[in-house]
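[Q] Does anyone have a clean structure-token version of this?
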Amino acid sequence: MARLTWIAMAIGLAVAVGFASAAGADAKYVGAGKCKTCHKKELIGDQYGAWQKSAHAKAFELLKGEKAKAVAAEKGIAGAPHEAAECLQCHATAQGLSASQVAAKPLKLEDGIQCESCHGPGSDYKKKKTMADHAKSVAAGMWEADKDEKICTACHNEKSPTWDAAKGFDFEARKKDIAHPIPADVKGRYEEAAKAARAAK
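[A] Here you go.
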């Protein structure tokens, strides 16, 4: 059983690496702390705050609970789930990737599923001038997770130890659960909106 779990996680990692390759061969994961610089601002909807309240942000801590320990034991995973590579593949961002794919230093495990698990490694699209234009962001490698179910199902699938076949994965419903949109009056015109906000102070 443990061997099957390893195989399933390896497949999930291969999918994630495939997405990373599509984002750009040299793209690196920068961590939610970098995203927070702009995405904690109320002007653009405080996506960072929404993420902090989400199950994704708590994914690593979930592995420390009694339920996770019981599931790990049942699946033949040796050791604590929050230290097991086969669990971390889907409970923390960029785990199992080479150091060259992560900027500066390893991402914090305790931050769980960070922004880049869904939006791709951000080194090539993180600049404000790029992010101010959605099309430029996508061209620079940002994944559109709300349009590509495969990004979610790399982990939310039947290989997961807690998969519920009766429920499956409802992409449309689940993306609403974690919605963190940029306000319509700001999207695509961030620089202009920011300038107007500064002038109004």
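[Q] Thanks! Anything notable?
[A] The chain has a mean pLDDT of 87.
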